[in-house]
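Sharing in case it's useful to others searching the archive later.

Someone asked me privately for the predicted structure of Corrinoid adenosyltransferase, so I'm posting the question and my answer publicly. Question first, with the sequence:
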Amino acid sequence: MKIYTKTGDNGETSLLGGKRVSKDCIALEVIGEIDELNSTIGEAVAYLPTYGRDGACPVSTMAKEEADGLPSFLQSIQRDLFKVGAEIASLQSEVKSNFEIITEEHVKTLEKMIDEYAEELPELKQFILPGGTKVGAHLHHARTVSRRVERALVVFSKKIKVRPALFMYFNRLSDFLFTAARRVNWNEGVEEMKA
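And my answer, the predicted structure tokens:
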């Protein structure tokens, strides 16, 4: 199967169920923002250490992140983002698909991770500059994209009803990404710079 279909050459594409829409419709705007968020999280994962086939972890001060499962947790978030994109696409279709949706349980999982990570960090008393390590900087970037998804979702919800769990998920996801960025930087010994 070829990667290019040429069916979108005139500025339209298909949503779930085959409905044709303009590529500038609000549903595709939200889906595109989610796709960018997913890719930005993928960049952070790419900089985290991974285990070799023999199970040995490369020498790295970030080995703790791998041991704590941050890469696999971030990849589970990436999979969740595909679920949200499918749901947004389905909201404009007459055809309803049976796919897993994001629920308040997903939100609670994010809250649990935020609480665990925050326990290890110094109290935040001022705004900090986004940055630090490469992973930390990518996680901060992902946080800002998550906020943009949240804003696009609000605009979309003025036209089509959106489940409250989706708003909660992106609000909490940006909090998790912020906390994860701080934790990665803290574990690397990178001092937070005051804004």
